[in-house]
Amino acid sequence: MNTRPPTQECADGAGYQSVDADLEVQLGSLQAQGFQVREVGNSDRARWYLIQCRPQQDERALQNLERQRYECYAPSQAVERWRNGRRCAVSEPLFPGYLFIHLDRVNDNWQPIRSTRGVNGIVSFHGEPPAVPDEIIEGIRARLSAAALTPRFRPGERVQVAEGPFAEIEAIFIATKGEERVILLLDILQQEQRLSFPASSVVKLRS
Predict the structure, then answer these.
(1) How far apart are CA 137 and CA 98, in angstroms?
(2) Smallest Cα–Cα separation from 170: which of 157, 182, 179?
(3) What is the DSSP letter of 203?
(4) 63: left (phi over 0), alpha (psi -120 to 50) or beta
(5) Which of 31, 93, 112, 132 has an alpha carbon within 20 to 30 A of 200's alpha carbon?
(6) CATH class of residue range 158-204
(7) 40: which DSSP letter?
(8) CA 2 to chain centre
(9) What are the pLDDT tens digits along the chain (207 aa)?
């Protein structure tokens, strides 16, 4: 028996559009035009839909949905971070607060999803959950599988020294030096100088 899917309501479309805009920005390299409503009607083919998680409960939602044997996809990427003065790779969600779920409207029971711990609801547009095109999911997977480790800073990026005698001075990131230091280009007394700093003392400029 087909049960109407529980949804995270966006009656005026604003909620859906904001999600759409966020994903469009992050998937710009895929030339994605956001989520397009496809096969929202009575298609019985399994499609991908978007789950909104409760704040800071992405992993909890994913684990609880998978325990109920739902097929989910929570794309993540490896990012370089500095912890305790050392570089390390950490996994961060590509779309914080959201994950994808694979469902059809005939054979899957949608009812338990809304009450699953960590889940806020299925994102909907005018009362209907739009299906995410398969090529978007495939594009995300291809992009992540081909992506190298994302460095914390990129050569030529403007940064700021956060502590020490050069605190609050802006500089240009040149390269990493070993595991714990970076090389910066500073303008000191109208002369450009390359200096080495502890990586933990350098931060991105606030936009």
Answers:
(1) 13
(2) 157
(3) E
(4) alpha
(5) 93
(6) mainly beta
(7) -
(8) 32
(9) 445 454 444 433 333 333 444 454 444 443 343 444 344 444 568 999 999 999 999 999 999 999 999 999 999 987 777 777 666 677 889 999 999 999 988 778 899 999 999 999 999 988 889 999 999 999 999 888 877 666 788 899 999 998 888 988 999 999 988 878 899 999 988 889 999 998 888 988 876
Which residue do the tokens 């990026």 mark?
157
Number of other CB atoms surrounding residue 51 within 10 Å: 27
Question: CA–CA separation, 32 vs 37, rounded Å?
Answer: 13
Instruction: Tell me the residue type at 120.
Output: N
| pTM value > 0.90 | no
Which residues neighbour 165 within 8 Å (Cβ) at sequence distance 6 or greater?
none
- Residue corresponding to tokens 């909620």: 15
Domain boundaries, the chain: 14-146, 158-204
Read off the amino acid at residue 134. D
**CATH class assigned to 14-146:** alpha beta
The token duo for 26 is 């992050």
Q: Is 152 left (phi over 0), alpha (psi -120 to 50) or beta?
A: alpha
Burial annotation 11-24 (CB, 10 A radius, 16+ → b, else e): eeeebbeebbeebe
Which amino acid is it at 184?
L
